[in-house]
Specification:
alpha+beta, four-stranded antiparallel sheet
Length: 176
């Protein structure tokens, strides 16, 4: 809850890259399901490539077409549920910068909120990998005056967050 004369300057969440593995799994599962359905519908006889190969693999594994179809559907459902869960976890973590503090919120059912006054922060560090630089995400470490370090992984636009923090901290009475 905002305190008097406080306003939100910046809000950052976890970057979409955290769900990239689940996106790949869903894509692969959809492709497998399409190939399976094409093969079952007889279209696989006309196609050269993946559908023909899947029919050959079926004969070697002694699986009938229904077994493969149900396995493909199960693979798709598991991948979709995994993507849904990962996206909920991603959306449940927010890092807010206000004119007086940094507010960290996480969780869905059991929520945790931590407010850190800007004058209690010693420094902010950003760590970025090569992929982080390309896709615009990085890890933010908030080092407090008492020595505690809070780590936030794969945050979107971390340097913008640090720049706005520097501006907000400079605007406080007494500055940095």
């Amino acid at each position: 809850m905002p305190i008097p004369d406080e306003h939100i300057i910046s809000r950052h969440g976890v970057h979409w890259i955290t769900i990239s593995l689940q996106l790949i799994l869903v894509t692969v599962s959809v492709l497998v399901l399409i190939v399976t359905l094409l093969d079952i519908g007889g279209v696989g006889q006309v196609q050269v490539g993946t559908a023909h190969l899947s029919a050959e693999v079926l004969r070697k594994l002694s699986l009938d077409e229904r077994d493969l179809m149900w396995m493909s559907i199960a693979f798709f459902i598991l991948a979709a549920v995994s993507l849904y869960r990962a996206n909920i976890v991603r959306k449940s973590m927010i890092l807010e910068l206000t004119s007086r503090r940094i507010i960290c919120q996480s969780g869905i059912v059991n929520t945790m909120t931590r407010a850190i006054p800007l004058n209690r922060i010693s420094c902010l560090n950003v760590n970025q990998s090569a992929f982080g630089m390309m896709f615009g995400y990085g890890d933010i470490d908030i080092e407090m005056i008492d020595g505690h370090i809070l780590q936030f992984n794969q945050i979107e636009a971390p340097f913008i967050f640090v720049e706005t923090y520097n501006d907000a901290a400079a605007a406080l009475p007494g500055g940095f």
